[in-house]
Design brief:
The protein is built from 1 helix and no strands. By secondary structure, the chain is mainly α.
């Protein structure tokens, strides 16, 4: 029983970490694209 619990917690931890990492990378890419678009839309000084 404890082995099943350990494997389940390990699996949940790995899936949660991968989801966090994937989401973070997606948000960083989105923000970077928004900043690049904002910079391109401003007139040069």
């Amino acid at each position: 029983m404890s082995m099943l619990l350990a494997v389940s917690i390990g699996s949940i931890t790995v899936v949660a970490y991968e989801g966090y990492r994937s989401g973070r990378n997606a948000i960083e890419a989105s923000v970077k694209q928004q900043l690049i678009g904002l910079r391109a839309s401003k007139p040069a000084k």
